[in-house]
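Sample entry (109 residues):
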Amino acid sequence: MKFRQHRYPAYFPVQVRTASGKQQAQVTNVNQNGGCLHGLRHVCRGDKLQLNVLSQWVDALVLWVEGNRSGIVFRPVLTTHQLDTLLNRPGAPAKGRGNRVGFNLTEFR
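Predicted structure, serialized as tokens:
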């Protein structure tokens, strides 16, 4: 059995360059080595992709495809800064974010 590094849940919209043109997709889980994309069409195993992360194009290779979900591997691996950006989850509902400070103005009286 082959070991795979833990992947972190994410919800990050990205622009993806494919052989058939640019598409929009969501990164649904990610680590520095790879991730899962939701929403890509017309991709096959072995296709080369580029994801726009921090206004930089990151190269990736499609490992598997199931419907509109695709597993990818980054070549080269993501930098720590790029990974942190994908985990920022700008499109996720605020309720699911655990890193927010919760207080209101009545606590300052």
